[in-house]
Amino acid sequence: MHPIDLAAFWPGYAVVASRQYAENNLTLTLEPLASALPRCGRCLEPSPLIHDRRIRYVRDRDLFDQRVQLQVPVRRVDCLSCGRAPERIDWLEPSSRLTRRLRAWVEMLLQMLPISHISRLTGLHWHTIKDIDKRRLQASVGAFEPGNVRRLVMDEFALHKGHRYATVIMDAERTRVLWVGKGNSREAIRPFFELLGERCRQIEAVAMDMNTAFDLEVKQHCPQAEVVYDLFHVVARYGRDVIDRIRVDQANALSHDKPARKVVKQSRWLLLRNRDNLKDEQAVQLQELLAANQPLATVYVLKDALKEIWYAPSVREGWQRWRTWLRHARDSDLPPLQRFARNLKRYARGILASARFRMHTSLLEGVNNRIKVIKRMAYGFRDSDYFFLKIKAAFPGKAR
């Protein structure tokens, strides 16, 4: 190979030797061109005085079917302005063992493929690729830039097993994640409002689940903001505290009739799913179940009535629907339903506020589902900061 055949790939250096040290693995030995003066890595001025040099092995982008490794002499110059400093190499970052060209290629692949696939394709270690991805994400979404935010959505999600949680906060109008942090306490979410600073005054509504910590912290920092309780979380809690409890009670009451008991025990998803999402045969099963079991029919009908409160066209209409629902729940003679209704009364203002602020419930449901997908794909999710950056990148927002 002629010494300058590939010089254009590594400005300032010439290829002086090549060696095939394994199948599909090529090592190229580079030497600085005598005509190119080294530059100080600090002031970028030419510096002809060389203090020392060391050999560094660097991976570059593949050349056809060959994985390319470079043997590069990296020098320290004796700069007249800065003293001893590493030289500036345009195609290689300081202390890096990957060329800028290889990093750019990996960053492009990261937008299309999982890390494990890129690792097999390039031969780079999983953690090396993760570090490249993390730095890319920090540059693109790492900064806190709330913009002209007026409405927020706050939600918690499971970070690890064992009831360890994190909190995500979004711009509701642009569906853009603004901040993610560990924990779901007041102290955990306070840094967001401290970063928001004076912009807290422009927040007019905040959607959340019935988390007292979120509620209190919002009222402290944004006293003018209306808290809007999210339908998705309320219905999910209704399913756990009311439908599941009554379904189990009804199944236990049918211990003498094993076929009927089995039908009730296996009806959980029929009762929790929206009727529109059921297949024809499932809809028939649901209708037969409700016709045969009055308590389950009652809680199922009141589940739909509860949802209708959030879709009221006005606060007045919402109040009427709310009062009607409370009356039916109180008269049901079903203790789990009555207990749920009593607990829900203290959240009435945040429920009725949905008539003024249409903070769509599918937004939080979509966020939760997307976070679960990211968590399943992210081997190495032990790095919480990296995981949070992935979440922010998944919700970049849309123009208003």
Can you describe this structure?
The chain is of the alpha/beta class and 400 residues long. It has four domains: 1-96, no CATH class; 98-141; 151-230 and 360-394, Nucleotidyltransferase, domain 5 (2-Layer Sandwich); 231-355. 45% of the residues lie in helices and 20% in strands. It is built from 15 helices and ten strands. The chain has helices spanning 100-110, 115-122, 126-141, 186-196, 212-221, 231-253, 258-265, 268-272, 280-292, 294-310, 315-330, 335-344, 348-352, 361-377, 384-394, and strands at 13-22, 25-32, 50-59, 67-79, 83-86, 151-160, 164-171, 176-182, 205-208, 226-229. Strands 1, 2, 3, 4 and 5 form a five-stranded mixed β-sheet that branches. A five-stranded mixed β-sheet has the order 8-7-6-9-10, with helices on both faces. Helix 4 runs parallel beside helix 5 (212-221), helix 6 (231-253) runs antiparallel to helix 7 (258-265) and helix 6 runs antiparallel to helix 10. The longest helix has 23 residues, at 231-253. It is elongated and about 95 Å long. The two termini are 57 Å apart.
